[in-house]
Every structure is written in structure tokens, then in C-alpha cells.
Design goal:
Length: 806
């Protein structure tokens, strides 16, 4: 009984019990019982091997087996090869450089590396390469170097791989292996050559000095590669008719490293690369792997133009292969090399476009990305037609990216504006609700800039929106254009003398806006634009019929009780205009000015802007544009001289103009003069416009021009003043002072400021949040840092209770 109790369970029995377990709980119970038995028993050396096998199997199942590390060390110290084999295997699985018992195995490894049996030395080298730490690598680096010089090819191969692992841990000791690695290139044994090439590649990647040293060995590598492709059949190295493809691939990778940005080294390998590319068997997959490495090597070095064309043609042949993996690799590689030889890739454009019809989704995506890289000014019409066809039939996962990228390409390479407008509208129609907001913004930008095609665009958009109301990006754009250019719908339109569109009745146009405003399919952003469009349409009707105006008034007030704050605010303010400010409604709702242009390349399209940005541009603050148009040039110049750190700007206030706010942003440029002849005068009661008085004198010599006091009609009695002084070369201190000239107490006072992204703004705490009547004041300091010395505008907004002054 004692003998049976001390005998550990055999591995075969443990496997049988675990397989018989029907649940995970039963399996854990078997493991727990066996682990406890292994921990508590003292096993004689004859049983350690079986115990180690049990522990390794437990470790492979994912259960903790660290308590068996000492059993593995006992087997490593055994003189028997069978014990050492299991012990070293357990050490490689159960030990790492963080384990405390890791240092105990160092001495055993060192002793075994000097053993007379090559297989025991091989076990020690394999273990060292697997679990070596920096300390262990330094201790045994000399033994590894000696084994690299051994007469045994089997040990030289193992030692070279172990040296590769050591220099990854400690690059400082790389120099001791350079002579050994160079001598290994003269080996006849392919296994040793393979490890030598791997070792040299790692050295070149870690050290530029070593890279320059090994560039002198390019002729040796070329000779080895030439012998491989020119040698006859060898049963030991032949793989499907190719001589040692593994060694060929590694040599090509090393040549790519050595020839990168080095014309002399590249020149030495041009001929052999062409020879390998033309002599490699392409009927088997092993040949494709070598050709793939040939392509990467040619594109990675300073190769000749003819070689680059040859590499692209190889990838073109890959595209015709029936294997989906090879086609995917070809498309991915062409995407990487398209900038290196654009014209050569263009020759395979037809084959690439055909890949768009592939059933594999990954191939479709790679082909789509490559097609956009191939678009230029000469093929934009044909490629746009192909991509629109693909967009109409592709899955939903492709539509958003395809739509945005094609919009960018159309903006960059459009042959004319009419074609650009048509393409964007077709894009939105084909992409449907998958179109991103940046495409809508691009369409708004384009239509606002092209006055000759505004009537044509609004007719087209009315048609598209009427045909399919579910496409919300198209409906949103249609509502915006109807609000701005809806007057063009009430007359016939002839586009470029080719197409004629009949006039639409006001009832039809108003019906579409009503559907957009009331439909449950409409997004919130669409409703925001629709209610503004309804309001603006009231000034664009051909005849101001009372029945139509009543319908518009009803639609404008429909969402006065909406739970959506932005929509409710618009409806309330528009209703107030109808009730109390009918005399200025036409001036308020004038068409928006042309939006500021974006980067010509189209690559700067904002990814997150879009419907929300368009909606905010048509926000309830419809008087902002009019107020900004009447802004005083002197105030703008004062702000510019305050932020600009050019000394010449302090000598006087130069003449300057203030630009209109961008329709796609909420730029706050609402400083206006109190001119009774301008449109801004009647707007004061509704939107709280600002008046500008005479500028305050500057008392200090270092002070910058001060902002004239700003009187608010929105917050009665509130006046703001701004003064600045330069403290450092790039810093300006701004002192903002708010004065209550009225007879009521102002509470919860808050001041906000904004500067462009190129500047840095630091706001200090205000002196208080309450402004007593009749002269009570609050001051606040702000520090503006202008590292680039550019001219900029600063925006201020003051709040008291629920009233705001911009």
C-alpha cells in the first residue's frame, strides 16, 4: 500500500480522467487532486520524469504549475539525457527571467554547453535562447561564441540562433559576434547559412555602424543567391521545384536592409534580383512567396526604373491568380508601392477595378482603397463612374468610406463645376443614410460658391428629396438649399442649355419642408435646418399670399413646445419675429454670404462636422451675419493690434476689415456699430447688438490700444471695456472690466473669452460675480500667449442670469 500511495499518477491515466470529465468543475477537481498529490509527496529520482510530464500537461491545459519548477531543475541536473530532455522542456515552459529559481539553472546550462554530447549541448542552447535574461546572457555569451566556432555544423546553427537572442537582450555585446557571423557566410551547410543570415539581419537592424560594415558583404550574398537559383536539383533542399526557398527569402530580406538608401549596394544587387524574378517557378505557392519578397526588395532599395516596372508587373500577375490570398497580398502591396512608381501601377487599373466585384470583403476594401490612390485629373470621369457603380451595389460597411473618399477626389480633380455638383448629388443619392456629414458640408460649400448652378442644384435636390425621403443627408441638404435659394424653384431653370426644369408651386415646396419638419423619419439636425428653411422661404415666395404666410407661421411655431432645446429655441424666436418684428423679417432672412473656402486638396475636410455644422450655421441667430456685416473696422483693427505682437502694430491703429462668420461654424464676430442707418439698428431689441463708443485713452507707454467700451442692449446697462499691456515678447495681459450703468442689480455674472487654436488663453478668477447698480464693476485678468506672432481676433461673451452678451 505504501508503494502505491507514493507512486504518482501516470500521464496516461491523468489524460483519461480529464477527458472523462463532463463539466469544467469536474476537470478542475481532477486537476486539484493531482496537484495536491504532487505537492505533498517526495518523489524519488526515478519518478521525477513522470511527475514533470504531469506538470507539463497541467501547464498546457492552463492551470498553474509553478510549484513544479524544482522538479524540472532536478531533472536538468541529472546525468541522463532522457531526464535532461524533460527537465529542459519543463524549464522552457515553466520558467522565465522573472522567476526566482531562474538563476539556479544558469550553472547547469553552462556545464551542459561544455558537454561532450552534442544533443545535450543542443538542449542547453535551446533553453538559453528561450529563457535567457540579460544577466544570464552576459554570463554565457563567451560559451555561445565558442560554440559558433565549433566544427559541428549542428551546434553552430544552434549557437547562431542563441547569439541572435542574446543580442536582442544586450545589444552592447554585439561586436563580439560580428567576426563569427561574417565567417558563417562561407558555410556550405544551408542550415548554418540560414541562421547566419538571420543573425546578420538582426545586427543590421540594431546598429547603423554594423549595417555599414556588412554592406561590404553584398557580393557574397549575391553569390550565394545566384548559386541557389543556378544549382541543379537537390533532394535535401528542393521544395516544389525551388531550391531552398527559406534561405532565398531570408537573403532577399537581408539585401533589402543593406540596400535601403544606399545606391552603391543597390547597384550590386540589381542584376541578381532581375534574374531571380525571371527564373522563379510561379506555378506553386512557394514561388509566389519568393516573388513577393523580390517585389518588396526592389521597392525597398534604390533600384532601377526597369526593375520597379518588373516588380509592379509581378503584382499585376498576382491579381489574376485564382487564390484569394495572393490577390489580397497583391492589392496590399500595390497600395504600399503606388507612390514609388505611379505610372506602372496605373497600367493595371482595369484589373484593380475588376477586383471591386470580388465576393471577398477584404479584397473589395483593398481594391477600393487602391482605386482612390489611382484617381487623377485624367481619369477622374471614368474612375468616378466606376466608384459610383460600386457605391450603389456594395455593402453598408463600404458606403461611408467610399462616399467620403470620392467626395475628396471630386473636389480635388473635378474637370468643371457642373460635373462636381452632379457627382456630389449622385454620391448622396447612392450612399443614402451612410453618407457622412463631411460630404454634406462639401456640397453646401460648393453650391454656395457657384451662383450659376444654385437654381439647378435646388431643382435637383428637390427632385431627389421628393423621390426618396428616407435619405436624410440628401433631405438635409435639400432643406438648406431651399431655404437659401428656394426662389429658383418658382421659375423654370435651364442648366447649361441642355436640361430644362419646370417651375414648382409654393405649395409643393412647402409640402416637402413640412414633411421634413414633421416626419418621424427626420433627424434632429434635419428638423433644425427645415424650420430655418421654412422661415427663410417666407421671403422668397413670388407672391406674399396671406394663406401661404399663415401656413409658414404655423410650421415655424409647431415646435415651440418641443422637448429638444435647439428646435424649441428656433421655433420660439421665429414666431417672435412674425409677431413683433415683421418690418425687419426680410432683412433678417437674407441669403447667407458665400462660405469661406477650404483647402484645395480637400484633405482638410472635418471628419466630425457636417449636419450639425450646417444646422448651427442656420441657427436662430439669423441676424449674426447682418450684424457682422456692419461691424466697425476700427474695433477689428484694435483687436488685431492687441493680439499681434509685431511692434509696428502699436504705433497706430491700421485700417482693417472684419470678415463674415463662416456658415459652418459659430464664430463670434458680432461687434457692430450703433449706426441708425444700418440694418443692425432695428435688431438691437431682438438680438442685443452692441454699440461702440469712442476709444479710451491709453495712459501707459507700454500699454496696447484699448477696446472701446461696448454698451449692450441685450443686457440693459452693462458696459464692457478691454485694455492690454505687453509683459513679455509673446505674452499680453488683458484686463476686462464690466460696469453696471443701470439701476438694477446684476447677479451670477460670468465672462467668457475665446481665441484661435494658435494662441493660448489663461483666465484668472474674476473679482466677483455681482454688479451693483449705478457704477458697480467687476474686473478679470486674462493672459494671451502668441508663440507664432500671428494676427488674430478675440471673442468675448458676458452673462448675467439668463441673458447673454456676445
Amino acid at each position: 500500500k505504501g508503494i502505491i500511495a507514493n507512486t504518482p499518477k501516470r500521464l496516461r491515466d491523468l489524460i483519461r480522467e480529464i477527458r472523462a470529465a463532463k463539466t469544467a468543475a469536474e476537470e478542475r477537481a481532477v486537476h486539484h487532486l493531482n496537484s495536491n498529490h504532487t505537492k505533498k509527496r517526495h518523489h524519488p529520482p526515478s519518478r521525477c520524469r513522470n511527475v514533470a510530464k504531469l506538470l507539463l500537461y497541467i501547464h498546457m491545459l492552463g492551470y498553474p504549475a509553478h510549484f513544479g519548477q524544482m522538479e524540472c531543475l532536478k531533472l536538468v541536473a541529472s546525468p541522463k539525457f532522457s531526464d535532461k530532455r524533460i527537465g529542459y522542456l519543463g524549464a522552457m515552459l515553466l520558467l522565465d527571467e522573472r522567476a526566482e529559481v531562474h538563476l539556479l539553472v544558469t550553472n547547469s546550462v553552462k556545464n551542459d554547453m561544455n558537454h561532450s554530447t552534442q544533443y545535450i549541448v543542443s538542449l542547453a542552447l535551446s533553453t538559453l535562447g528561450s529563457i535567457c535574461s540579460p544577466e544570464m546572457s552576459r554570463d554565457l555569451a563567451g560559451e555561445v561564441q565558442a560554440l559558433i566556432k565549433s566544427n559541428n555544423a549542428y551546434l553552430r546553427k544552434k549557437a547562431a540562433l542563441c547569439a541572435l537572442r542574446i543580442i536582442q537582450k544586450i545589444p552592447d555585446i554585439m561586436e563580439m559576434y560580428i567576426p563569427c557571423a561574417r565567417s558563417l557566410l562561407n558555410e556550405k551547410n544551408h542550415g548554418v547559412l540560414l541562421t547566419a543570415v538571420c543573425l546578420i539581419s538582426q545586427m543590421c537592424q540594431l546598429s547603423p555602424e554594423t549595417l555599414n560594415h556588412f554592406r561590404r558583404l553584398v557580393p557574397n550574398l549575391v553569390r550565394i543567391l545566384k548559386n541557389l537559383i543556378m544549382s541543379g536539383f537537390s533532394q535535401d533542399h528542393d521544395v516544389n521545384g525551388v531550391s531552398d526557398p527559406f534561405l532565398q527569402v531570408k537573403i532577399l530580406q537581408l539585401l533589402r536592409i543593406l540596400g535601403h538608401q544606399d545606391s552603391a549596394a543597390s547597384e550590386q544587387m540589381n542584376d541578381i534580383l532581375a534574374q531571380v524574378a525571371t527564373n522563379t517557378e510561379t506555378s506553386k505557392n512557394v514561388g509566389h512567396s519568393i516573388l513577393y519578397e523580390i517585389v518588396l526588395t526592389i521597392m525597398g532599395i534604390e533600384s532601377e526604373s526597369g526593375l520597379r516596372v518588373l516588380a509592379v508587373n509581378i503584382l499585376g500577375r498576382f491579381l489574376l491568380n485564382t487564390d484569394k490570398n495572393i490577390r489580397y497580398v497583391a492589392l496590399s502591396t500595390l497600395q504600399r508601392v503606388v507612390q514609388a512608381d505611379y505610372n506602372a501601377v496605373q497600367r493595371h487599373r482595369t484589373t484593380i477595378v475588376d477586383c471591386l466585384r470580388d465576393t471577398d470583403a477584404s479584397i473589395k476594401r483593398r481594391a477600393m482603397e487602391l482605386c482612390f490612390s489611382l484617381i487623377n485629373g485624367q481619369n477622374i470621369r471614368g474612375m468616378a463612374k466606376e466608384m459610383l457603380s460600386f457605391l450603389a451595389d456594395c455593402g453598408s460597411e463600404f458606403k461611408a468610406d467610399c462616399c467620403s473618399n470620392l467626395a475628396i477626389a471630386a473636389e480635388r480633380y473635378a474637370p468643371n463645376k457642373r460635373w462636381h455638383v452632379d457627382t456630389l448629388l449622385k454620391l448622396l443619392a447612392a450612399a443614402g443614410n451612410h453618407a457622412r456629414d463631411d460630404v454634406v458640408v462639401a456640397a453646401v460649400q460648393l453650391i454656395s460658391e457657384q451662383s450659376a448652378y444654385q437654381a439647378y442644384a435646388v431643382h435637383q435636390l428637390f427632385y431627389y428629396a421628393s423621390q426618396d425621403f428616407s435619405q436624410q443627408p440628401m433631405v438635409l441638404l435639400a432643406c438648406w438649399c431651399i431655404g437659401e435659394y428656394g426662389g429658383g424653384l418658382f421659375s423654370d431653370c435651364c442648366a447649361d442649355g441642355l436640361e430644362t426644369y419646370s417651375a414648382k408651386s409654393p405649395e409643393e415646396v412647402l409640402g416637402l419642408l413640412e414633411q421634413a419638419l414633421l416626419s418621424s423619419q427626420s433627424r434632429q439636425s434635419t428638423k433644425h435646418v427645415a424650420v430655418t428653411a421654412v422661415m427663410k422661404l417666407s421671403t422668397r415666395l413670388p407672391h406674399q399670399e396671406q394663406q401661404l404666410l399663415d401656413s409658414i407661421r404655423h410650421l415655424a411655431a409647431y415646435h415651440c413646445t418641443s422637448s429638444q432645446l435647439e428646435l424649441q429655441q428656433r421655433s420660439v424666436e421665429f414666431s417672435a419675429i412674425f409677431r413683433h418684428h415683421e418690418n425687419i423679417r426680410a432683412a433678417l432672412l437674407e441669403p447667407m454670404p458665400v462660405m469661406e473656402g477650404r483647402a484645395e486638396s480637400g484633405r482638410d475636410l472635418p471628419a466630425g462636422s457636417g449636419a450639425a455644422a450646417v444646422a448651427s450655421g442656420d441657427s436662430a441667430e439669423v441676424g449674426d451675419e447682418v450684424a457682422a456685416a456692419a461691424a466697425a473696422a476700427a474695433v477689428a483693427a484694435t483687436f488685431e493690434s492687441l493680439i499681434n505682437f509685431d511692434d509696428s502694430s502699436t504705433g497706430g491703429v491700421p485700417n482693417a476689415t472684419i470678415g463674415l462668420p463662416n456658415a459652418a461654424t459659430n464664430s463670434s464676430s458680432m461687434l457692430a456699430t450703433n449706426n441708425s442707418n444700418s440694418v443692425a439698428g432695428p435688431l438691437i431689441d431682438v438680438f442685443g447688438d452692441l454699440g461702440v463708443s469712442e476709444p479710451a485713452p491709453v495712459s501707459e507707454a507700454s500699454a496696447l490700444p484699448a477696446l472701446p467700451p461696448i454698451a449692450s442692449a441685450g443686457i440693459a446697462g452693462l458696459q464692457l471695456s478691454l485694455a492690454g499691456s505687453r509683459q513679455q515678447s509673446n505674452n499680453v495681459d488683458l484686463i476686462i472690466r464690466a460696469v453696471n450703468l443701470g439701476d438694477t442689480n446684476m447677479t451670477n455674472f460670468l465672462l467668457q473669452a475665446a481665441v484661435p487654436k494658435s494662441l493660448q488663453l489663461s483666465m484668472m478668477p474674476a473679482s466677483g460675480d455681482c454688479l451693483p447698480p449705478a457704477g458697480g464693476s467687476v474686473t478679470q485678468k486674462a493672459v494671451v500667449t502668441n508663440p507664432n506672432g500671428v494676427s488674430a481676433l478675440c471673442g468675448l461673451k458676458a452673462w448675467s442670469g439668463l441673458k447673454g452678451l456676445g
